[in-house]
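Worked Example 4.2. Consider the chain below.
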Amino acid sequence: MSSPDAATGPTFLVAGAGRSGTTGLVEGLRTHPRVFVTQPKEPHYFALHGQPAEFRGPGDADTINRVAVTDQEAYLDLYPRQHDFLALGDGSVSTLYYADRAVDEIRRVNPDMRVVVILRDPVERAYSSYLYMRARGFEWCADPVDAMADEPRRVAENWHHLWHYRAMSLYAESLATLQHGLGRDRVGVWFHDDLESDYQGTVSSVLRFLGLPVDPREGLGVPRVNVSGTARRPALQRAIVATTRNEWLRRTVKHATTFRFRERIRRSNLRRSAAPVEVEEYLADAFDEDLVALSSLVSGSVPAWVGRGQARTT
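Applying the procedure from the previous section yields the following structure tokens:
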């Protein structure tokens, strides 16, 4: 057990990509008795360290700006001083997106840090991000193509990263930055497809990467969390959005319920939706060059979409 006076910090980071299953993975890791994950799950420290969170998109003041922890002392205070955990970390998807800013601070805080990256078909990830912001009541644009076409303006006006539907689906440069800065052996890459086809096996693989024994309770599973989709019951969705936007209501509900209960209610009201044809057509060649570069950064068994860029450019 660590000394109660010893400073504690992260040994791993679940870095993204956003809307690729990071929350589901983190909830699985939390079930291991020797794993600690911060509350909030996404303090965004490594992406935003040393600067205030001042994003200006709809809802940003009540979400990322409110929960971000950008001061080093405050960030380290998220971790227990006395503990017997073997792995401690956070799950900020901004770490991958802002890898060029994050990597030096990661090395400074812990040069032995292990980083977990989960990637998703870029078109599906972009559309999922749109649906997520739409379900939360922040995305006013009913047409996903129009919303994506508006991205350059939103980026210029400093809307936070989940609004960057297309840009956040470009993985290669950020992944290469982490691999170069930390060492390829310290950056593990998994895929959303793995979580969908073998959730428990994927969590176990990540645990082994973190140097942990697989939990003997393996097989309990974790419910799907943080899913996106279209509302089955619009009235319920409006109530969820109203609760999210009201500070007093949000805190009251969080105090009275568990995360998994809230997710079960939210999930039950969402119908999963694949990217429509018009989105696929709009983004048809947006990721080809990035996927070609990505294919040289990953190894082993990879989903078919990783090779899509190579197929289209040859």
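The radius of gyration is 19 Å. The CA atoms of residues 243 and 250 lie 5 Å apart. Compare this with Example 4.1 before moving on.
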